[in-house]
Design brief:
Layout lengths: L13 H11 L3 E6 L5 H7 L9 E6 L5 E5 L12 E5 L2 H12 L3 E4 L15 H9 L3 E4 L1 H7 L5 H30 L6 H15 L8 E4 L24 E7 L8 E5 L4 H14 L6 H14 L13 E2 L26 E4 L2 E4 L3 E4 L2 E5 L4 E4 L11
Parallel strand pairs: 1-5, 3-4, 5-6
Antiparallel strand pairs: 1-2, 2-3, 7-8, 8-9, 10-11, 11-14, 12-13, 14-15
Helix pairs in contact: 6-7, 8-9
Length: about 375
């Protein structure tokens, strides 16, 4: 860890952890990582960079944290607020683990039957190893939601700023495409994509991937990527889909929007607001059902082929609750501090596709939708 890096587990809410572990019937949260396969572990601990050796950290319900780390990577645990037990040979690692977890119930990043892949981060062999030492392993899903998926105040501020900026960039790009077509100029998907990237640069936003731009039939492919030489030229009467995401910095919470519109998106938000006002629990699966019900009732259920929304944290597709009862059954409760996309879509193969995407942050008092003025109608450009 760099001397300038903050201490590990700085400002970590140990009382909240103890309360949640009690509800899980667990003695501790056992965090594991190897080569970055479990980003939640390094995020919770505050470890920077990717280690090349396995580590385990037990955050217990009672007592101080314990880390088991390889001798050549002990520097990553400088400032750790507990005991660091080094190992080098695999037999040492096994001996340390047996002592640490034997007879305990520990929460780890597993999802029974791989129900939620974004949560299922610990390899089967590691679970076998831990259970072989006499421990019982349970899912850490509620812990991930509380400690890894929630946004900080600065992340919320950066997200909100990015959301308003990319909304204006989207409107401008779509209007540009229409005006260029009207004057007889050629407009290709890659040209609009490049225009958005240039706008990101001028606005001081960064992204990890260029936006999705799909004209007419290509809009029916949810994850279409335009390629120079094979991208579509805009024609009169075409539908345009623009899916763009960016943030104020890499490694922070991005804003993620798709510009088009139809009714299913708002059904999910309406249910969320109603439940939140009554202080009733709500899951991502329930919101997916609400949006999907609108589309199914309109006769397009077979053409809505993905979940309604995904968790957003420091990863654009985060580890918190997803709005999903289609691809997976995500029954994790939505809690204050988490955020996600709401992006139902209808895709008619060979014709066109329509998707509308907004983001929602769950504040303590009410859900907050970004951008402040979401698209309500298709832009006629």
């Amino acid at each position: 860890m760099s001397p300038l890096s903050p201490p590990l587990l700085e400002n970590f809410d140990f009382p909240a952890l103890r309360e949640l572990l009690g509800k899980l019937g667990a003695d501790g949260w056992l965090l594991y990582d190897f080569h970055g396969i479990n980003p939640a572990a390094t995020r919770v601990l505050g470890i920077k960079g990717m280690g090349t050796r396995r580590f385990f950290v037990l955050l217990p319900r009672e007592g101080k944290p314990v880390a088991i780390a390889h001798r050549i990577e002990l520097a990553s645990f400088d400032g750790f607020p507990g005991e660091v037990r080094p190992y080098a040979a695999w037999r040492e690692l096994h001996d340390q683990l047996r002592t640490l977890v034997g007879g305990k119930t520990v929460a780890m990043e597993i999802s029974p039957a791989d129900a939620v892949p974004y949560l299922d981060r610990v390899p089967h062999g590691v679970v076998e190893l831990i259970e072989g030492f006499g421990a019982k392993v349970v899912s850490s899903g509620t812990l991930i939601t509380r400690f890894a998926a929630r946004w900080s105040p600065s992340e919320l501020e950066g997200h909100a700023r990015a959301a308003e900026t990319i909304a204006e960039i989207a409107r401008t790009a779509l209007r540009w495409g229409g005006s260029e077509l009207a004057r007889g100029a050629e407009v290709r998907e890659t040209a609009m994509q490049a225009r958005v990237m240039e706008a990101f640069g001028r606005a001081g936003l960064v992204t990890d991937h260029p936006p999705i731009v799909g004209f007419q039939a290509n809009a029916a492919n949810p994850h279409y990527e335009p390629r120079a030489g094979s991208d579509r030229r805009l024609a009169a009467g075409d539908v345009m889909l623009l899916d763009l995401w960016a943030g104020v910095a890499l490694g922070t919470v991005f804003a993620d929007q798709t510009w088009m519109g139809f009714a299913g998106r708002d059904a999910a938000v309406a249910l969320l607001r109603a439940r939140w006002m009554k202080k009733e629990p709500v899951t991502g699966a329930a919101l997916d059902d609400a949006a999907r019900g609108v589309i199914r009732a309109a006769g397009f259920g077979d053409y809505f082929v993905h979940r309604t929304g995904h968790s957003i944290d420091r990863d654009l597709h985060g580890s918190g609750p997803h709005l999903d009862n289609f691809e997976t059954a995500d029954e994790r409760a939505l809690i204050p501090g988490v955020g996600f996309s709401v992006e139902p879509g209808i895709y008619l193969p060979g014709r066109f596709g329509i998707r509308s995407e907004i983001n929602v942050y769950l504040g303590d008092s009410a859900p907050v939708v970004t951008p402040k003025q979401p698209q309500q109608e298709l832009l006629l450009v």
